[in-house]
Amino acid sequence: MTNQHPPSGRILAIDLGEKRIGVALSDPQQKLARSYCVLKRRSRREDFQRLGRIIAEQEVVLVVMGLPIRLDGSESSMTRWVRHYSAELVENLTVPLVYWDESYTTQQAHELLQERGVTQWQKRKEQVDAVAAAFILQGYLDAQQKEYDESGAA
């Protein structure tokens, strides 16, 4: 897991859950994130294969993994589980992986879907992970842009 940020190309974000994987993609210019899909988890091997296919098909240059950090900044058992999963995932990837704090992204996703009129709980549950992944990715993209702007490179 690296801190290298590629200058262009699509970035994929993952909101990892015990039952589902939310996936979001950036545009090639790395300005905007959009929800892409929700994968129902089956086995790690199958998860890695499906994510690998998306990465290849979409020409992804970096993976951003949402990391659940407690409000006090400490790590939970879920954080450790995500790190362990990511360590296995990165062995199957051809692109680097970085972590990004996913605090409040699921809550933001629920609120956005409710605002958009998605009121059925089951329907919202099916979409929330991909929307949360988009919030994770947009946070990462915005932070990278801010860092770039502050470096005087703009």
Question: Would you mind describing this structure in some detail?
Answer:
The protein is of the alpha/beta class. The chain has one domain (10-145): Nucleotidyltransferase, domain 5. The protein is built from 4 helices and 5 strands. The protein has a 5-stranded mixed sheet with strand order 3-2-1-4-5, with helices on both faces. α3 packs across α4. It is globular, with a radius of gyration of 15 Å.
What summary fits the major beta sheet? Answer: 5 strands, mixed
Helical content stands at 40-55%
Gross CATH architecture: 2-Layer Sandwich
User: What is the strand content?
Assistant: 15-25%
CATH homolog superfamily: YqgF/RNase H-like domain
Termini gap = 27 Å
How many distinct helices? 4
Mean pLDDT: 85
Over all CA atoms, what is the radius of gyration? 15 Å
In short:
The protein is of the alpha/beta class. It has helices spanning 44-57, 77-91, 105-115, 121-150; strands spanning 10-16, 20-26, 33-40, 60-67, 97-101. 45% of the residues lie in helices and 23% in strands.
